[in-house]
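User: Could you check the structure of this?
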Amino acid sequence: MKTGVIDVGGGMRGVYGAGIFDYCMENSIQFDYGAGVSAGSANIVSYLAGQYHRNYSYYIEYSVRKEYMGFGNYLKTRNFINLDYIYGTLSNSGGEYPLDYEAAKNSGKEFVIVATNARTGKPHYFTMADLRQDDYGPIKCSSCVPVVNRPYPYKGRYYYDGGISDPIPYKKAFEDGCDRLVVILTRPRDFLRTTKNDKRLSLLIRHKYPESAKRLAQRASLYNNQLKGAIKLEKEGKLIIIAPESIEGLGTLKSSNTDGLIKLYDMGKKDAVKIKRFLHRQNS
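Assistant: Sure, the predicted structure tokens are below.
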């Protein structure tokens, strides 16, 4: 059976997924396929590279730096999150904690990185073949949060976070041949998005990127419908949803709550045991 994993990301809440993947590495749990959205793509590529605890360092240690994200960055560049610092300065071969690109590339696993084409508002699916040593542009594209960041330019096109066009990409994973899936959420499984904030924020980009603005305004409906679909498939035994009971007060861009980050990471490691049980049942 072809086993896939989806990590939906969620900014700093992505530390929950980091805990899950560290558990998987500790327990030799293998996936044939990974689809990452936003920070979820960074979690998965470190897992494919076999770099245990690497993501922990980014969420817990590096995220508090002013270079990582903050209003200082926004005032200088109109980008609250410094994607070039995170996935360039820190991650490149000469960086403080480089990605083992060769190990990820040679893992033999399929890797899909979900981004949104800023002009069309449609999802764009990068793959491992789009990554190069010290060129992790697709992960930057996938992690480019609308409004707080300008769309990320990459190879002549502009991209936003994949979460506004395909937030829980289980349909893509099944289309790519997966037989069973593990879906990592970073909010409680009964959480439903509301439209108020998204509609307000969409007004700030609708002049230059009207199609992405439409996607942003409709994000709540899309996420909620995809979540309902995933829950239905879970009841049918085709996937399992792993989600935290609490997000410990964390938001997408809140890095100062170190205790909350550590608790959510630990929660991910604890909850990941459900994956082992799910795969065992499927193999029986």
